[in-house]
Design a protein that fits this description.
Low-confidence stretches: 1-46, 170-179, 505-528
Helix content: 25-40%
Largest sheet: 8 strands, mixed
Strand order of the largest sheet: 6-5-7-1-8-10-2-11
Radius of gyration: 22 Å
Structural class: alpha/beta
CATH class of the largest domain: Alpha Beta
Shape: globular
Mean pLDDT: 81
Number of strands: 17
Number of domains: 2
CATH topology of the largest domain: Alkaline Phosphatase, subunit A
CATH architecture of the largest domain: 3-Layer(aba) Sandwich
Distance between the termini: 29 Å
Number of helices: 15
Strand content: 5-15%
C-alpha cells in the first residue's frame, strides 16, 4: 500500500508549474534531503550518489554502438561514457513497447504484474514508481520527454515535480511534413540545460531524459541523413508505403530499401549521440556527473526485416533484435568504470539495483534482482522472460478472447544461457534457438529433427515459461480511450496523438473478464 506522500505526488504532478511552495515545506524537504544524504554514506566516509540520472533511448538497438563492438557507426560520447561505466553486454527488456517497458523499469516488475500491456494504457495507482519512492526521500524529480508515448495522461509522471511533456508537434521530417507528438534530441537536451540553468540543481535530484529519435520514421537532420548513405532516402510517403510492403513480406532483407532505412537509422543513433553528449558535458561542467549514479538504457530495440513479422518495427515478437537493449551504469567518479558484465541482466533488475546503491529498502513485490555493482562482473546468470505486445487491431478480437491477461496469447520467451525458447499461442507455434551458433535466430531447432540436447533445452524452458506465464496477476489498468476521468475530446485527442506515432491499431474490443484480470483492464480490449 502506498503512503499518503506517494498519493499526493501522483495528484500534484508538476509542482514546478504550480503555486510557490510554502517556506515550511521547503524546510521540511531540506531536512529530509540532508538526512537521506547522510544515510547513504559509504565506507570510509565517502558519500554515495546524491543524484540519479536515467537516460532512456527509445527504440535503440545495442549493436549500433562502438562500445558494443560496432566499428562503423559513430558514437564517441556514448563510448566515452561506457569507458567510465559498468557495461551490461547481455541486457534485455522484459516487454518491447515504450510505456510498458518504462513501467517495468520504474517498478522492477513484469508487465503481467504492473498491468500495463502496451502503449495507451494508464499505469494503475497501486504501482509504486521509482520517482515516488525518491520523492518520499527528499529528491526533486524532473522529466524531459521526447515523445507523447510517455505523456502524463498515462500516469507514468507520478512522483515528478516537473514533467515536461508539452513541447512536441514540431516539424520533424525532411520533407516538411509534420510528425506530431515527438521532438528531436537537440530540443530535449536544450530543455534540460535551460531548466537546470534557470532553476538550479537541488541537493538531491532525479533526472529522467527520454530521447525518441531512432523511432520510425528514420529521418535524421543534415548531415546525419547522409552520414551512412550518400544516396539519401526516398520521400516520406514512399518510406511509409515501403514499410507496409515490408510488413506484408514483399521486401526481403537484401532489398536496397532495407539497407537505406538501416543506414538512416544509424544516422539517428549518431545524431542522438551528439546531443546526449552535450547533456553529459553540461553535467560534467556543473559537477553533477560525479555525484550521480547514471543509468543509460533503451526501452527496446528494433527489427530490420531479419524476421518478416513486424519488419521495421517492434512489439510483435520477442526476437533479440527487439529484446536486446543498451544497458550501462556509471557510478560517482566513474568508480568500477570499464567493468563488463557477461551474465544476462533484465530491465526489471535496474529498479532494485538503483535502490540498493542508494541504501533504500526494496518495497514488497519487486521481481527484479539487485546487482552488486562493486562486484558486477561476477553477476550470477538468470532466466530472462519477455512478452510481446502486438499484434493488435482487428486481430486482437481473436487473440485476446478469453484471456486472463491481454498479452497471454501473444509471443513470449524464456532464455537461459545459449538457449532461447519462444512460444506464440495465437499461432500455435514454438521455436528454439541456440544464440551462440545462431545469434540472429534464423534456424528454429524444433522445425525438423531436433537433437536430444535441443529437445531437453526446449522441455526445460517450456516448463519455466509456462510457470512464469501462469503466475500473471496484473494490477488493473485502463485503456486511455475508456478513461471517464477525461472528457470525450481529451480521450479522442490522446488516441489521435498515439495514432500520429503509429501506436493505435484499431478500436477497442471487449474481452471476457475473469478473476485474475480485472474488468477495468479487460474492457480496454485492443490498445496502441
Amino acid at each position: 500500500m502506498k503512503t499518503d506522500t506517494a498519493r499526493t505526488a501522483r495528484t500534484t504532478r508538476s509542482a514546478a508549474r504550480g503555486p510557490r511552495i510554502a517556506w515550511a515545506t521547503v524546510l521540511v524537504v531540506a531536512v529530509i534531503a540532508a538526512a537521506a544524504y547522510f544515510t547513504v554514506r559509504g565506507k570510509g566516509g565517502r558519500s554515495g550518489p546524491r543524484h540519479v540520472i536515467i537516460i532512456s533511448l527509445d527504440t535503440t538497438r545495442a549493436d549500433h554502438f562502438g562500445f558494443y563492438g560496432n566499428r562503423t557507426i559513430r558514437t564517441p560520447n556514448f563510448d566515452r561514457l561506457a569507458g567510465e561505466s559498468i557495461v551490461f553486454d547481455d541486457y534485455s527488456t522484459v516487454v518491447p513497447t515504450t510505456l510498458a517497458s518504462h513501467t517495468s523499469l520504474f517498478t522492477g516488475t513484469y508487465a503481467h504484474t504492473h498491468g500495463v500491456p502496451r502503449n495507451g494504457f494508464i499505469v494503475g495507482e497501486r504501482n509504486l514508481l521509482l520517482a515516488e519512492l525518491l520523492h518520499e526521500r527528499g529528491f526533486q524529480n524532473f522529466a524531459f520527454l521526447g515523445s507523447f508515448a510517455l505523456d502524463r495522461s498515462f500516469g507514468v509522471d507520478a512522483g515528478f515535480d516537473y514533467y515536461e511533456d508539452d513541447r512536441f508537434d514540431m516539424l520533424l521530417r525532411s520533407s516538411g511534413q509534420r510528425d506530431q507528438n515527438q521532438r528531436r534530441a537537440d530540443q530535449v537536451t536544450d530543455s534540460i540545460i535551460a531548466y537546470l540553468s534557470a532553476h538550479g540543481v537541488p541537493q538531491r535530484m532525479f533526472l529522467f531524459a527520454h530521447y525518441f529519435d531512432p523511432h520510425l520514421p528514420y529521418d535524421p537532420p543534415s548531415p546525419y541523413d547522409r552520414m551512412y548513405d550518400p544516396d539519401g532516402l526516398p520521400a516520406d510517403d514512399q518510406l511509409m508505403t515501403l514499410r507496409v510492403d515490408v510488413e506484408r513480406g514483399v521486401v526481403t532483407q537484401d532489398a536496397p530499401i532495407v539497407a537505406k532505412l538501416t543506414r538512416q537509422y544509424a544516422g539517428e543513433i549518431s545524431y542522438m549521440d551528439e546531443h546526449v553528449g552535450r547533456l553529459l558535458a553540461y553535467l560534467r561542467e556543473r559537477k553533477i556527473l560525479d555525484d550521480a549514479i547514471v543509468l543509460v538504457t533503451s526501452d527496446h530495440g528494433e527489427q530490420f526485416a531479419e524476421h518478416r513479422v513486424g519488419a521495421f518495427d517492434h512489439g510483435d515478437t520477442v526476437y533479440q533484435t527487439a529484446a536486446r537493449c543498451v544497458g550501462l551504469v556509471r557510478l560517482p567518479r566513474g568508480e568500477h568504470g570499464g567493468t563488463r558484465v557477461a551474465a544476462s541482466v533484465r530491465s526489471i533488475d535496474m529498479f532494485p539495483t538503483l535502490l540498493n546503491q542508494l541504501g533504500i529498502p526494496l518495497p514488497p513485490g519487486v521481481e527484479g534482482e539487485a546487482i552488486d555493482l562493486a562486484h558486477a562482473a561476477g553477476t550470477a546468470p538468470r532466466v530472462v522472460f519477455c512478452e510481446a505486445t502486438k499484434p493488435h487491431g482487428p486481430q486482437a478480437a481473436i487473440i485476446e478472447r478469453g484471456a486472463r491477461w491481454l498479452n497471454q496469447n501473444r509471443s513470449k520467451c524464456a532464455r537461459e544461457g545459449q538457449w532461447k525458447y519462444i512460444e506464440t499461442p495465437w499461432q500455435k507455434s514454438s521455436e528454439l534457438y541456440d544464440l551462440t551458433a545462431d545469434p540472429l535466430e534464423q534456424r528454429n531447432l524444433l522445425a525438423s529433427g531436433p537433437s536430444p540436447e535441443a529437445v531437453e533445452a526446449a522441455r526445460r524452458l517450456r516448463a519455466r515459461l509456462s510457470a512464469w506465464s501462469n503466475a500473471a496477476n496484473p494490477l488493473p489498468a485502463l485503456w486511455i480511450g475508456m478513461n471517464t476521468a477525461m472528457s470525450r475530446d481529451q480521450r479522442a485527442a490522446a488516441v489521435k496523438n498515439l495514432g500520429a506515432l503509429g501506436y493505435v491499431g484499431g478500436a477497442p474490443t471487449a474481452t471476457e473478464p475473469s478473476a485474475t484480470q480485472p474488468a477495468t483492464s479487460q474492457s480496454a480490449g485492443t490498445s496502441p
